[in-house]
Amino acid sequence: MSADADTSLPAPKIQLTPQEWKAKLDPEEYAVLREAATERPHIGEYTDTKTEGVYVCRACDAELFRSTEKFDSHCGWPSFFDPTASDAVILRSDNTLGMHRVEVLCANCHSHLGHVFEGEGYNTPTDKRYCINSIALRLHPSDSAAG
């Protein structure tokens, strides 16, 4: 279940024991970030936000996405068409729930963020939808967001 269990991944830069993660994260954050749970749709803090800024991993503060790559997919979770940098996330095959998906992990700490889908017809530069749990993110508003 934990991303750390996959030995084919490069070692995360931040490695904590499950007990240390539980001390750092609240139970809902832990369930999503460390056990690959999914928050319910349309309840997340960042699903509909238009605030400009940088989205970081709630577990380790690594920069993951920017508001300039966020778009309205109306799927119930924040959606981005590309991460901040190609090495910000790790993509991993996920065959749970009787279907094939591609899981998105924070490259820095291997926390579960959500899944990426492509070829859905969204009018974005990459034709990809990084469907990310709000609870996996923290938004750092840009200075220009106030103006």
Automatic annotation (TrEMBL):
Domain of life: Bacteria
Enzyme Commission number, as recorded: 1.8.4.12
Key word Oxidoreductase present: yes
GO molecular function list: metal ion binding; peptide-methionine (R)-S-oxide reductase activity
Pfam families linked: SelR
Stored SUPFAM superfamilies: Mss4-like
Reactions listed under catalytic activity: L-methionyl-[protein] + [thioredoxin]-disulfide + H2O = L-methionyl-(R)-S-oxide-[protein] + [thioredoxin]-dithiol
Cofactor(s) the record lists: Zn(2+)
Identification of the protein by name: peptide-methionine (R)-S-oxide reductase
